[in-house]
Structures are given as structure tokens and as C-alpha cells.
Design a protein that fits this description.
With about 80 residues, the chain is an all-beta fold. Helix content is about 0%, strand content about 40%. It has one domain.
């Protein structure tokens, strides 16, 4: 999904994603744990590799809050 500040990211809730954002020089890999009309919240994988989602552990204590206008692209992995 390409950048669109009005896009509803609810379809990605509880799914593994890779997010490219203006706030990070590397893609953020994790699970979307919250979404609203202005932002998404990502629980990153501990390894941040995302190579095997079903064996990944997610850090629910430390999350990334990403405003929609900071998202370059988001794809389900």
C-alpha cells in the first residue's frame, strides 16, 4: 500500500507487515496492533527480521506509533 494519509489500515490489524516510513532508515517489521484514521501502532518482532512470522515473538511493551503521513509504504508479509 503506497502512502495515503487518509487510508484506513484496519484491514492489516493483527497481521504481519513491513512498513517503510520517513521516521526510520530501515523497514519496520511487526504486527499491527492498533489503527485509527490518523495512525497505526506496530508491535515489532524481537529480531525485526520477519522471515518466519509464525515463530516470531512480538514486543507488545515497546511499540511504534506511526502517523499515517509518515508511512511511505506498508505491505503484508
Amino acid at each position: 500500500m503506497d502512502n495515503n494519509s487518509s487510508y484506513n489500515y484496519n484491514e492489516f490489524l493483527q497481521k504481519p507487515v513491513e512498513v517503510n516510513t520517513y521516521l526510520s532508515s530501515v523497514p519496520i517489521v511487526g504486527e499491527v496492533i492498533d489503527s485509527d484514521e490518523n495512525s497505526i501502532t506496530i508491535a515489532p518482532t524481537f529480531s525485526n527480521s520477519g522471515s518466519d512470522y509464525h515463530k516470531s515473538n512480538f514486543d507488545k511493551e515497546n511499540t511504534y506509533y506511526l502517523p499515517n503521513n509518515s508511512i511511505i509504504s506498508l505491505k503484508e508479509i
